[in-house]
What does this fold into?
Amino acid sequence: MTEFQETLLLLGGFAIVAVAAKQIAGFFQKAKLPFITGLLVIGLFSGPFIFKLLPEGSGSSLQFINDISLAFIAFAASAELYLKELRSRFKSIKWMTFGQLVVTFVVSSIVIYFLSDQIAFMREMDGAGKVAVSILMATIFVARSPASAIAVINEMRAKGPFVQTAMGVTVVKDFLVIMLFAICLSVSKALVGGEEFSLTFLLLLLAELAASFGLGYIIGKILTLILRLLTIGI
It folds into this structure.
């Protein structure tokens, strides 16, 4: 079986699971739980660790679905943000982002380091290794999924200042977490592998983000022009 055929089979299996998950998740709504909770639970049970409806390693073959989904998630997140409304809440967004990012990262790093003797794979590590693992795990703790927030907001048809603030914090923090992970990864490599701390990876990331912002700006202008032409009936 060729790689293309295997990908098609996995894609077909994923489509069946996705359709079934949408139907089953409806029962979670009857229990007064968000629809996305049902999707997450079904995804957990369908994966390679429980029912194995999708085999282990299928994630790499279906990575393109994740990439396409991320583009739609980013588009949906930005659609919930209005700069004119966010300006009046900038101070709140700034301090909430600081609290969730910095405080959570620092506290999580310290807690993981001091609990390292209770974590099996960290017991035999030296101090530098424990620090490296602690800051990387803390970065994961800080990360939040915009998809979950958007799903709940859309389901509840939520509007208002709180929603705008929550989305602003989610999007800003998601951007900062990428930068934080790049820094922590470079520091971890220096601590564990003895490599010199290099800003190359961080600079490449900044260049990629700048290119993404530029491309997004151009696409935004094109979409605005198209919508404007459709509005006037051209």
